[in-house]
Amino acid sequence: MQPTDLPRCRDDPKKTEEIIQEIKDYYFEEGCIDCSQRELESLGPEINMTSLEERIFSLKTRDTAVYRKIYDLVFSNYTAYVQELENVTMLQVSLQDAARTCVNARRSLKSARQGVSHGGLGLLGKHRKRERLHSLLDILKTLKTLQRTDTRLKVLLEVNYMLQFL
Q1: Do the beta carbons of residue 2 and residue 56 sit within 8 Å?
Q2: Which residue numbers delimit the Vacuolar protein sorting-associated protein 54 N-terminal domain (predicted)?
Q3: pLDDT higher than threshold 50 for residue 154
Q4: Residues 50, 58, 25, CA angle at the centre, nearest 5°?
Q5: How far is C-alpha 52 from the geometric centre of its chain's CA atoms?
Q6: CA distance 36 to 154
């Protein structure tokens, strides 16, 4: 038999399923198995060309059936895949926008915090200066009052001094 004699299992889904059902379960198990080693061991100690060619044909038929089944599954889920890919792409764009928004918000927050800190320090400095000026103004008012009082006392003393001489 030649490889060109492989049955066209892609045209017959039932035949494809039958071929896949004939494959032994250990080929589908997870883990580290060496399929080629297992096939060589299954041939036995004596190998003749006819049985070897039949085995190669059988394996190629199975390979074709598995390939077709995978192809059918992928193709049948292609529209769902495209839709999910679009959803993932939109989600990535949305996440990039959100990340950009977060970065910009953090920059604005940092700038605002620095502005508040500098502005707050400026307000605090202005408040302290105003308080000092108020204290200075109070002291000047007190000095002015004392100066007036001194002037009046001097006037009164002069008047009293003059009255004593009279």
Answers
A1: no
A2: 20-160
A3: yes
A4: 130
A5: 56
A6: 127
